[in-house]
Design goal:
Length: about 120
């Protein structure tokens, strides 16, 4: 991933989270250090049933990482997170979606402000 938005998201996650992961339409949950081949698949283009199935896969991959976690920061787009938020809020976890409702351009502006105008 090389888009300006992606780079800003990574910078923000590096600063705001102790541990963070990427969501991949093909692979589900990925560690940021994992290198994968480019793909054109996108979870937002999948039908609802396929997104639910993908979300269940992500939940299974993410579950072992949530022991003791009290706060979850979600930077994924609305369609990618739609079946994940209820799960993330279980066990009293605080779930934050700071860019909820922002367009892509607004997200980029928000991230640049939050990141102090410093890009990767």
């Amino acid at each position: 991933f090389v888009s300006p938005l992606f780079k800003e998201l990574c910078d923000y996650a590096d600063r705001e989270a102790d541990t963070w992961f990427l969501l991949s339409a093909e692979h589900g949950l990925l560690d940021p250090e994992t290198v994968i081949a480019p793909t054109s698949k996108g979870s937002s283009r999948k039908e609802s049933a396929a997104r639910q199935e993908w979300s269940q896969r992500v939940i299974e991959q993410l579950s072992p990482h949530l022991d003791g976690v009290r706060r979850v920061l979600v930077l994924a787009n609305a369609r990618s997170r739609e079946y994940l938020l209820d799960f993330l809020a279980q066990d009293g976890r605080e779930v934050e979606v700071p860019m909820d409702g922002l367009s892509l351009g607004e997200q980029l502006q928000w991230l640049r402000r939050e990141n102090g105008g410093k890009g990767r």
